Amino acid sequence: IPAMIYYGLQILNPTIFLGACVVISAIISIATGSSWTTSATVGIALVGIGEALGISLGMTAGAILSGAYFGDKMSPLSDTTNLAPAMAGGELFDHIRYMTYTTIPTILITLTVFIIIGFSIETSGSADTQGILTSIESAFNITPWLFLVPLAVIFMIIRKTPPLVALLIGTLLGGLFALFFQPEVVAGVTGADSLSFESGYKGILNAITISTAIETDNTALNALFTAKGMTGMLGTIWLIVCAMVFGGVMDGIGALSRITKGLLGMAKSTFSLFASTVGSCLALNITASDQYLAIVVPGKMFAKAYEDRGLAPENLSRTLEDSGTVTSVLIPWNTCGAYHSGVLGVPVADYFFFAIFNWLSPIMTLFFAALGIRIKQLVTPNQAV
For every residue of 173-239, which 3-state class applies, written as one string? Predict the structure, then answer.
């Protein structure tokens, strides 16, 4: 992450700044599988640079979140990207491949808009990045070799390596590279003066499992280089468990069946079925205030309906992501909206319009459904033969 920030800051200028925010955030989010991590690391730095340039904080935050949620959707390391096909009854990489049909046009439109804005806005001031770069250099050994770790993960993604395997290998490579390139940092995490077998082993395990912080001479950077490890994800894991239990109870008492029948009563066509799914995801993001419930509950509600209409599960999983995952950040009281707004220091109302990718995604999926573009039919065993 420090290397990404270090090299990223050196290629930014006011004209391409917003477009670069989209691209940089997308790359980091794909590599990490987390929009939250992207906002909490490079996102904070980009907001600071944008403010120094005199660019609207809402514009900057919107560009960051657009790129972050593109990566979050397309990365097999993302929890929502794994959750959506699991709920729809599909396969992970089939889901990712099918999402490209709506996601690529959406991100291209988003990027084009930000490039146009970049050429049209007037900026004032200049971003003093030299102090940040110096602080990073003094705390870390920065070298392009560090990019071998995220590149290895991306390569495994392309080769369709199972997500847990890719994540484990990426974690082990990260620990190995840390021992080789950042021995002082690893030792410092444990409070030791120098690297030894004990301090190295303990330092890597601490970085993986519990909260760690790396101090620099720049207070703004200290927040960037603080991580919670696996313990930081326990809240999310419990939330997913609760969502799954809630969905199971709703299914067990017959509530999902009743709700599905009511919604399907209005779904007289393929388009109306897609529209009902989008509406359910948006409603749950607003009322249940969490993107996981916005994926789990509609996923369980509509899986049978899509199957009965002869539609492949990829249609449902793509719609869940296009409407449930990305719109969560647009709602102030949703866990995602509250988190990103708090981390970036920008109210949801300020970045709502500029989070183009997020509100354009459900529109794009409905556009494809209305025109019958890339609507995959369910293949039965007899048809396959």
Answer: HHHHHHHHHCHHHHHHHHCCCCCCHHHHHHHHHHHHHCCEECCCCCHHHHHHCEECHHHHHHHHHHH
Amino acid in position 112: T
Which two tokens mark 245? 């239990």
Task: Look up the pTM and report it.
Answer: 0.73
Please enumerate, as own/partner, the contacts of 180-187 that have beta carbons within 8 Å and a separation of 24 or more.
181/141, 181/143, 181/145, 181/146, 182/140, 182/141, 185/139, 185/140, 185/214
**Cα 277 to Cα 316: distance, rounded to the nearest angstrom:** 8
pLDDT for the residue numbered 126: 53
Helix or strand (DSSP H, E) at 120: helix 92-120
- pLDDT, mean of residues 152-170: 77
CB 127 within 8 A of CB 49: yes
pLDDT at 384: 44
What is each CA distance from 230 to 10, 206, 292, in whole angstroms?
31, 10, 19
Could you tell me if 136 and 142 are in contact, meaning their C-beta atoms sit under 8 angstroms apart? Answer: yes
Q: ∠ at Cα 148 (143, 150), nearest 5°?
A: 110
Q: Which residue has the higher pLDDT, 358 or 269?
A: 358
For residue 123, the one-letter residue type is T
Q: What is the per-residue pLDDT across 123-146, written as a single tens digit (0 to 9) for each?
A: 655 555 677 788 888 888 999 999
Tokens coding 20: 């670069």
d(CA 29, CA 224): 15
